[in-house]
Design a protein that fits this description.
single chain, about 375 residues, alpha+beta, Apoptosis, Tumor Necrosis Factor Receptor Associated Protein 2, Chain A, 3 domains, seven-stranded antiparallel beta sheet, five-stranded antiparallel beta sheet, 17 helices, SKP1/BTB/POZ_sf, AtSIBP1-like
Length: about 375
C-alpha cells in the first residue's frame, strides 16, 4: 500500500515534467518530496524496516559521513562502527553524562599510530523530537591532528532528545610527507601526478617549459603556446589522426583550440608531458575533463573523474551532476545523486535546485525521482 501511494505521487510529478513549465516542475517536485516524506513518516511498516539497519553504521559518500541515531534519550554511550575516509578508518562516539559529548577519532591501528591524520572538518548535529528540530554546528576545525578518542571532543550542553543525525564533512585530510617537510593533503596530491609521470619521462617537461625544438603552435582563446607533434600524437589518437592527414593543422603547423584559455591549455600540456603539479590539476579539472573527452585521452579523463568524486559539496554538486551527465561519468553521477537524495542535501540548496531544473535534461529529472523513490520508500 505504501509503495502504491508513493508511486502515485511520482507519476503525478512525471506528468508535470512532461506538460508543465519549468517553475511548475520545480514546485511539483518539492510538493512530491513533501508528500512522500509524510506518507513514509506515518507508515507503521517503517519501524520494522529501520530495525533491519545497524544503529551503529555510518553512511559515507565523497567527503561526507553521517550517523543516524533513532533515540538519543536511551543512549549513555554509543560508538559507531568503523567507517572509511581517506587512508584511515574512523569512529564517531556519543557519551552522555552531565552534558552530551561527541567524539571523532581514527581507529587504532599501526598505520594510524605511524601516520596520524591531520583533519579539517565541519561537524553538525541535527535533533528532531515531536516536531521540534534543533541544528547545532561546531566551528570549523582546521589542521587538527587526531590520535586518540580525546583529541576531538565536542561538549553539547543543550538538551537533545529524539532522533539525532551527526554529520561530518571532511574539508581536508593530511598525512606526513614521505620525504619529510610539511604534511601533504591526501586529496590534492598523488593521483594526477602519478598517472601523468607514468605516461611521460621527466625530460619531456624541459622540452615544454623551455620550448626546445617545438614544431607546432596551439592557438587558444586568449593566447598561444608551443608544443611538439610527436608528444601530442603519442598521447592522443585524435592528434595523431590530425597530423596524419592533409589538414590545416599539418600545413600551417597550428592547432586551433578556441574553447580553452591559454592557462588551461598549459595545464593540459603539462599533464601530457608529465609535469603537472597538484594545485594546477585541481584548479583546471573541468577544462581538463573537456579536453580529455574531446581528444580521447582516457587516463586524464579517469583522473578528472576520480578527483571530482572526492570533493562533492553543496556548492558544486549540481555542476558536477551536469558534467557527469554530459561526459557519461556514471560513478560521479551516482555519487551526486546519492549526496542529494540519500543524504537529503537537496533541501539545503532548494533555490539553486529550482534554477537547475529549469534547464536540466528531462531524463535527468526523472532519474532524480527514481532515486528518491528507491531511497526514501524505506526510510
Amino acid at each position: 500500500m505504501l509503495e502504491l501511494v508513493i508511486r502515485a505521487e511520482v507519476e503525478e510529478v512525471e506528468n508535470t515534467t512532461k506538460l508543465g513549465k519549468a517553475g511548475e516542475v520545480a514546485g511539483g517536485i518539492f510538493d512530491c518530496i513533501h508528500d512522500i516524506t509524510e506518507v513514509i513518516a506515518s507508515s507503521p511498516a517503517i519501524h520494522w524496516i529501520r530495525m533491519k539497519d545497524s544503529a551503529y553504521r555510518v553512511e559515507t559518500t565523497s567527503r561526507l559521513a553521517q550517523w543516524r541515531i533513532d533515540n538519543v534519550s536511551s543512549c549513555t554511550y554509543r560508538r559507531s562502527d568503523p567507517f572509511h575516509m581517506g587512508f584511515w578508518n574512523w569512529h564517531l562516539a556519543l557519551e552522555k553524562n552531565k552534558v552530551l559529548l561527541i567524539k571523532l577519532y581514527p581507529e587504532i591501528s599501526n598505520f594510524a599510530k605511524q601516520n596520524p591524520p591531520i583533519a579539517s572538518f565541519v561537524i553538525r548535529v541535527l535533533s528532531s523530537a515531536g516536531g521540534d528540530t534543533k541544528l547545532l554546528i561546531h566551528p570549523e576545525v582546521t589542521d587538527k591532528q587526531l590520535k586518540s578518542n580525546d583529541d576531538f571532543v565536542w561538549p553539547i550542553d543543550v538538551p537533545l532528545t529524539g532522533k539525532l543525525i551527526i554529520d561530518v564533512e571532511f574539508l581536508d585530510l593530511k598525512a606526513a610527507s614521505p620525504q619529510g617537510g610539511e604534511p601533504c593533503s591526501i586529496w590534492a596530491q598523488g593521483l594526477s601526478q602519478r598517472r601523468s609521470h607514468a605516461a611521460a619521462l621527466n625530460g619531456l617537461g624541459r622540452m615544454l617549459i623551455e620550448g626546445i625544438h617545438t614544431d607546432v603552435t596551439i592557438s587558444t582563446r586568449d593566447g598561444s603556446v608551443g608544443a611538439h607533434r610527436a608528444i601530442l600524437a603519442a598521447r592522443s589518437p585524435v592528434f595523431r589522426s590530425m597530423f596524419s592527414h592533409n589538414l590545416q593543422e599539418t600545413e600551417l603547423s597550428t592547432i586551433n583550440i578556441s574553447d580553452m584559455t591559454v592557462e588551461s591549455c598549459q595545464a593540459f600540456l603539462s599533464y601530457l608531458y608529465g609535469t603537472i603539479q597538484p594545485e594546477e590539476f585541481m584548479a583546471h579539472r573541468l577544462p581538463l575533463l573537456h579536453a580529455a573527452d574531446k581528444y580521447d585521452i582516457s587516463d586524464l579523463k579517469d583522473a578528472c573523474h576520480d578527483s571530482l568524486i572526492e570533493d562533492i559539496n553543496a556548492s558544486n554538486v549540481l555542476e558536477r551532476l551536469q558534467c557527469a551527465t554530459l561526459y557519461q561519468l556514471l560513478e560521479l553521477r551516482a555519487s551526486c545523486l546519492r549526496y542529494l537524495v540519500q543524504f537529503r542535501k537537496i533541501f539545503d540548496i532548494r533555490d539553486e535546485f529550482n534554477v537547475f531544473l529549469q534547464s536540466a535534461d528531462r531524463e535527468l529529472i526523472a532519474d532524480i525521482f527514481q532515486e528518491i523513490l528507491a531511497t526514501w520508500k524505506g526510510f
